Structures are given as structure tokens and as C-alpha cells.
Amino acid sequence: MQFTAQQIGILLNGNVDGNPDVTVNELAKIEEAGTGSLSFLANPKYESFLYQTNASIVIVGEDFVPSSEVNATLVRVKDPYSAFSILLEKYNTIKLNKVGIEQPSFVHPSARIGKDAYIGAFAYIGAGAIVGDNCKIYPQTYIGDNAEVGDDCTFFPGVKIYHDCKIGSRVVIHAGSVIGSDGFGFAPQADGSYNKISQIGNVIIEDDVEIGANSSIDRATMGSTIIRQGVKLDNLIQIAHNAEIGKNTVIAAQTGVSGSSKIGEQCIIGGQVGIVGHISVAKGSQIQAQSGVNRSIEEEGKKWAGTPFSSYTNQMRAQVIFNRLPDLERKLEQLEKALKDKL
């Protein structure tokens, strides 16, 4: 892949300052870039690298004024960071653009595969399954019987989609994630043992969702576990049976959402958060990392922290007091000593 500064300028609606015919064939950080590399400058603290870089082209802000000589050709845009993200997406799309069915793989005769799809080696597509147009199904991926996958999806190696699950369009699932495994349902018996409760529901993932590596979303006992449109899940996340994650909510790594809990739209949930079952979290809630949510959150747009959780402000005050405890202990000991001396 090779592009000129002029082509990049047209793509990003920017202006070229320098040689419009200079070419690049890779993307790189400005401090590491070599000849033939394209980089960007968005944070002023990295400006010094601009005067040292070997990059052939650097994307900068439209109002940027260099303080020293710059050897690279500059492409001036309104927002360098957003512009570079567009290039990263284009680069990734081109790099991952595969089509066809590799062998050995298994596609059941009753399965339907859309046009321009890619099915990698050792993939398995079950009976009655549907895979939409332009999907990229990487090697060792499993798509179970009667599962449905929309258009323009990417499933990286080792993804497992159990039977009857429904995936929307433009969904990305990273390596090792499991969609539709059994929910954690067991009935305690009089003798202390547990009988398994069959999990006969499914998982529904709506459009434009991205799920990180080695995450697990359990199928519902009955009905559906639902991941709404635009949700972004990090690596190593557990979503339990019959839970629902609201539209455009983002959740960081190692968080667990227990069964039948409902997370509202546009929530931001930090890493290692634990959310108990059968509660609801209001729209726009922000939950700090390592918090324990043990009851419903009913106020929208609030910040929360701690275990058990409380308002973010209260937790910060509590932290200040906690850090002062050693000093308070010393003062208390001094007061006790002073009282004893007087007695």
C-alpha cells in the first residue's frame, strides 16, 4: 500500500505543505517514524520530535506554526488526531480485506454465506446459520446452528458463537470470546448438591458493537441476553444470563455483570467493577474502577465509586480521611499519654 501526500490531503480534506508527490507505505509514531512513514502531531508536548523525525509525511493542525525547519511534508487538517484515526481505519480495512472460503473449513449445506465474505481455515458454520455480506470470519471460529450474523462483521480467531444467537451488522468480536455459553443456573437440592437449570434462551448483539478478547456473554435462561447498539466491551468481561447492556455504554476490562441486571444507555464503567444481579443502573452513570455495585442506581448521569459504592464525592472525602488515620492515631496516643501524666 502506497499513498502520496496529495492523495492523503484529498482523503482528509486537508492542505499539503511541501512535496505533494512524496509517498508513504506505513503508519508510525512520530518519535519512531522512518523514511516512507506517515505520522501525526496532535499533542504539543511532542512537537520537538517533529524537527527530528524521519517521517516523510506528518499530519498537523491547520493553524500549526513550526518553530524550526521541518523536513517532512505536512498535511494540515482541522483535527490531526481524528484525521489520523481515519487513516488507521482505512489502513486496517485494507490490511484485513480478505475474501473467499479457505480449506479445510466446514460450511453446512443449509448455511447461507453472503457475498464477498471471508471464511478462514478450520472455521465451522453450522446448520441453518446465516453469515451476511462482507463478513470476515477468521480461522478456528465457530458459528453454531441457526445463528445469525449481519453484514460487515469481523470475528477474529477462535471466536465461538453458540446456536440461535443473533449478531447485528458491523460487529467486531476479538479472539477467544464466547457468545451464548450457558448462564450460571443451578438449583440447590436437599442433599446439598445442585441440579443444572437448562439455559434455552440466546444472546442478541445489536449493530456497531465491539467486544474485546476473551470475554464471555452468557445465553439467557429464557428470552435473551441483550447487548444494545454501539456498546463497547473491553477484554476479559463477563456478562451473565438475561443481563442487558444499554446503547453506547462502554465497559473496561475484568468487569462482571451478574444475571438479569440492566445497565442503562451511555454508561461508563471502569475496570474490575462488580455488579450484582437483578438491579438496574441509570442512564449516563459513571462507575469508577474496582467499585462494587450492590443495589440499583436510579439517578441519571451521576458518578459513583467504592465498595460498596456511594457517590464519587463521598468516596474522595473518605479517601482523604483514610489517609489521615495514621496522624489521627498518633495524636490520639499523645492525648492519652497527656491525660495519664495529669492523673
UniProtKB/TrEMBL annotation:
<keyword id="KW-0443">Lipid metabolism</keyword>
<dbReference type="GO" id="GO:0009245">
    <property type="term" value="P:lipid A biosynthetic process"/>
</dbReference>
<comment type="function">
    <text>Catalyzes the N-acylation of UDP-3-O-acylglucosamine using 3-hydroxyacyl-ACP as the acyl donor. Is involved in the biosynthesis of lipid A, a phosphorylated glycolipid that anchors the lipopolysaccharide to the outer membrane of the cell.</text>
</comment>
<keyword id="KW-0808">Transferase</keyword>
<dbReference type="Pfam" id="PF14602">
    <property type="entry name" value="Hexapep_2"/>
</dbReference>
<comment type="subunit">
    <text>Homotrimer.</text>
</comment>
<comment type="similarity">
    <text>Belongs to the transferase hexapeptide repeat family. LpxD subfamily.</text>
</comment>
<dbReference type="InterPro" id="IPR001451">
    <property type="entry name" value="Hexapep"/>
</dbReference>
<dbReference type="Pfam" id="PF00132">
    <property type="entry name" value="Hexapep"/>
</dbReference>
<dbReference type="Pfam" id="PF04613">
    <property type="entry name" value="LpxD"/>
</dbReference>
<dbReference type="GO" id="GO:0016020">
    <property type="term" value="C:membrane"/>
</dbReference>
<feature type="active site" description="Proton acceptor">
    <location>
        <position position="241"/>
    </location>
</feature>
<protein>
    <recommendedName>
        <fullName>UDP-3-O-acylglucosamine N-acyltransferase</fullName>
        <ecNumber>2.3.1.191</ecNumber>
    </recommendedName>
</protein>
<feature type="domain" description="UDP-3-O-[3-hydroxymyristoyl] glucosamine N-acyltransferase non-repeat region">
    <location>
        <begin position="21"/>
        <end position="89"/>
    </location>
</feature>
<keyword id="KW-0441">Lipid A biosynthesis</keyword>
<dbReference type="InterPro" id="IPR007691">
    <property type="entry name" value="LpxD"/>
</dbReference>
<keyword id="KW-0444">Lipid biosynthesis</keyword>
<dbReference type="InterPro" id="IPR020573">
    <property type="entry name" value="UDP_GlcNAc_AcTrfase_non-rep"/>
</dbReference>
<keyword id="KW-0677">Repeat</keyword>
<keyword id="KW-0012">Acyltransferase</keyword>
<dbReference type="GO" id="GO:0016410">
    <property type="term" value="F:N-acyltransferase activity"/>
</dbReference>
<comment type="pathway">
    <text>Bacterial outer membrane biogenesis; LPS lipid A biosynthesis.</text>
</comment>
<dbReference type="GO" id="GO:0103118">
    <property type="term" value="F:UDP-3-O-[(3R)-3-hydroxyacyl]-glucosamine N-acyltransferase activity"/>
</dbReference>
<dbReference type="InterPro" id="IPR011004">
    <property type="entry name" value="Trimer_LpxA-like_sf"/>
</dbReference>
